[in-house]
Specification:
Layout lengths: L3 H12 L5 H12 L1 H29 L13 H24 L3 H8 L2 H8 L4 H20 L6 H16 L3
């Protein structure tokens, strides 16, 4: 698992280059949002259960067939598994948020997800919708706490959405 700083340095070291203006600008950008990242993570952590519950309710309102007989979240066990997965995505998105690097999402969430979802016959579309809902709820909570929102906050969720949307699961 890497953060924005170690990823940047690794890339420059691999090519034997000194940090140039672009690298310095990337570092400045990362550090300028550092406090906001940590504060946003604290807001997420203290509201995680509520965020997951609200996201689940919103998802099942938008895609009610998921909880109807035969749906992928039908039965208590499947419903709980869906909420567990949403919590999983939220937790790892928070790690990536603090790190300022999506490496943790690639390593710990996205690798192997295709096989898991295929083996369980789980469609990815509702997952992508749920992650989008989480993104919006997190932005609302962070803004309500008086913290800045923006790209730094959306990046982990957008990365998950983009990568899952590009996979044919």
């Amino acid at each position: 698992m890497r953060d924005a700083v170690t990823s940047l340095i690794k890339n420059y070291d691999r090519t034997g280059r000194y940090l140039d203006r672009d690298a310095i600008d990337q570092l400045k950008s990362y550090f300028s949002t550092g406090t906001a990242r940590v504060q946003a993570a604290a807001v997420i952590n203290s509201n995680a259960a509520t965020l997951v519950k609200q996201a689940g309710s919103a998802l099942f309102s938008q895609v009610p067939e998921l909880i109807r007989p035969g749906g992928y979240a039908y039965t208590t066990r499947r419903y709980a598994a869906c909420l567990r997965d949403m919590d999983y995505y939220l937790r790892y998105a928070t790690y990536a948020l603090v790190a300022g690097d999506m490496d943790v999402l690639d390593e710990r969430v996205l690798q192997g997800l295709r096989e898991t979802y295929n083996s369980l016959n789980v469609p990815v579309g509702p997952t992508v919708i749920g992650i989008g809902i989480l993104k919006d709820l997190v932005a609302e909570q962070v803004a309500a706490a008086g913290l800045p929102t923006g790209d730094y906050l959306e990046q982990p969720f957008e990365h998950l959405i983009r990568e899952l949307g590009e996979q044919d699961i």
